[in-house]
Design goal:
heterodimer, A: 219 residues, mainly alpha, 6 helices, 72% helix, globular, B: 274 residues, 80% helix, 0% strand, cytochrome c-type biogenesis (chain A)
């Protein structure tokens, strides 16, 4: 059973879907039922981080040993990471509309992630501007590592230096005090694993597609 | 669950510094590259030959850059004229009512002018030189020496440009700065931060075909963390706030500068090979 993790991903996400919409959640003013978005919004960022870290890992590997395989993996993990980042922005925007009253607020975390997405779009454009595969691989790997470090500064350090509307920042309470019975944690933690596995699955599918296209081109 | 906790980040600067120091140590250990140690501790007598050579190499390369710039003065004069005319355009665009300008607008405008000057002047640091000559350096100097010398030289260039720009800006747009030495300090930090980040990006962009567009789209998002911190520090200096209130930002800026320089030195050899 080498595909056990795909089955695990499906099972976990089914569980998250059912428990996420039907399970018990703490009753809070303003948040109300929208607190369920925790399973879909916060987990996107976990998955994005996991995928982008994997991407940087393969970029480092590529610089040490320039195999085409590593370059493919680095770029495909980055693509899926971007997808999860955009989904995180969309779910966050939806949540902000019903709790903070606007689709987009001038919150440092929102701005940081938006800039982070710009950095990764620039990465895609950079890749597009090379013809030679070896050069493209090496230079985009260098940029990927460089951009990742700046991205970390953006999302981990800068938002901590100002107030934010997000829970756990600027005097706002986190989720822990209200989830006294732990009913959300038993859905939240499997959700993180499930979404990350789904991200890896999407990436492996794209990698296979890329390999097939390459074979087709050679024929 | 840690992510629910409120205060795991009370040591936020520690995180940045630890990462910087980690990268440094790793690098020193891996490559026996003692330049960083050398800068911190000049009394260190046990320098190996390679460290001494490295230092000489960087010095010689900076010398070369300065001489090159001095021989073709039009480039430097061009950049000076660029910043002066931009400032003048801003002055005229506000219809000469600069005394009605709010401090925050004054500050932001100045940094945006500096940002564009930096992108334009540093973009040429790799494009200026011909392919043959780059190949010649490749045989002579180590990539670490080249990137360090370029970063240091670009920092000096940006320092000259931004201080000249600040002087002219203060003359035509008025000078509402409360704490002038802190403001100049933020300009120095900005010059080093901009040039260390942009030198690496210029190296990346120069390898591609449409390098001027690429330079802009690669550098703007990457430069934003530095720019935001600079805006905050300089706004504090502008309002003449207590120095302690900008200590956090200055500290973080120094850490980011350090991280970017170390990263550039580590990554540049891979860029240089291609």
């Amino acid at each position: 059973m080498k595909n056990w993790w795909k089955i695990l991903s499906v099972v976990l996400l089914m569980y998250v879907m059912i428990m996420g919409f039907l399970g018990e959640v703490p009753r809070q003013p303003i948040l109300n039922e929208s607190v369920r978005n925790l399973y879909f919004h916060v987990t996107m960022w976990f998955s994005m981080m996991a995928l982008l870290i994997t991407s940087v890992w393969y970029s480092v590997k590529y610089l040490r040993n320039p195999l085409e395989e590593y370059d493919d993996k680095a770029v495909e993990f980055a693509y899926t990471g971007i997808l999860f980042g955009v989904l995180g922005l969309i779910t966050g925007s939806l949540w902000a509309r019903f709790t903070w009253g606007a689709w987009w607020t001038n919150d440092p975390k929102l701005n940081s992630v938006a800039i982070g997405m710009l950095i990764y779009f620039a990465y895609i454009i950079l890749r597009g501007s090379f013809q030679d595969e070896l050069q493209r691989g090496r230079i985009s790997a260098v940029y990927n590592i460089f951009a990742f470090v700046i991205f970390m500064v953006l999302i981990w350090i800068l938002p901590r230096m100002t107030d934010s509307l997000h829970p756990g920042n600027g005097g706002n309470p986190g989720f822990k005090p209200m989830d006294t019975k732990g009913t959300m944690q038993i859905v939240f933690r499997p959700a993180i694993v499930g979404w990350i596995l789904l991200g890896v699955w999407i990436t492996t599918l794209r990698l296979r597609l890329k390999k097939l296209e390459r074979i087709q081109k050679e024929l | 669950m840690e992510i629910f906790e409120h205060d795991i980040y009370h040591s936020k600067y520690y995180l940045v510094f630890e990462f910087g120091v980690y990268l440094c140590c790793n690098f020193v250990a891996r490559k026996n590259f003692g330049l960083i140690l050398f800068v911190f501790d000049r009394s260190l007598e046990k320098q190996t030959l390679s460290e001494k050579l490295m230092f000489q190499e960087v010095k010689a390369l900076i010398n070369k850059e300065v001489k090159l710039e001095w021989r073709q003065k039009y480039a430097l004069n061009g950049m000076l004229l660029y910043i002066v005319s931009t400032v003048y355009i801003c002055y005229l665009s506000f219809k000469l009512k600069t005394n009605e300008l709010k401090p925050i607008t004054w500050n932001t405008l100045f940094w945006i002018i500096l940002l564009f000057t930096a992108v334009n002047s540093i973009a040429k640091s790799f494009q200026q030189e011909k392919h043959g000559r780059l190949l010649y350096y490749y045989t002579l100097a180590s990539p670490e020496g080249i990137i360090l010398s370029k970063i240091i030289y670009n920092s000096l260039l940006m320092l000259v440009l931004s201080l000249a720009g600040f002087g002219f800006y203060a003359i035509v747009m008025g000078n509402p700065v409360g704490d002038i030495s802190l403001y100049l300090g933020s300009i120095i930090l900005g010059a080093v931060g901009f040039s260390s980040t942009l030198t690496m990006i210029a190296g990346i962009a120069s390898k591609a075909d449409n390098s001027s567009t690429l330079m802009a789209i690669l550098s703007f998002p990457v430069i934003i963390p530095i720019l935001l911190l600079l805006l905050k520090v300089s706004k504090n200096a502008l309002d003449g706030l207590d120095r302690g209130s900008s200590a956090d930002e200055v500290f973080t800026l120094l850490a980011i500068d350090l991280i970017v320089v170390v990263l550039s030195v580590i990554l540049f050899p891979y860029l240089w090979k291609s």
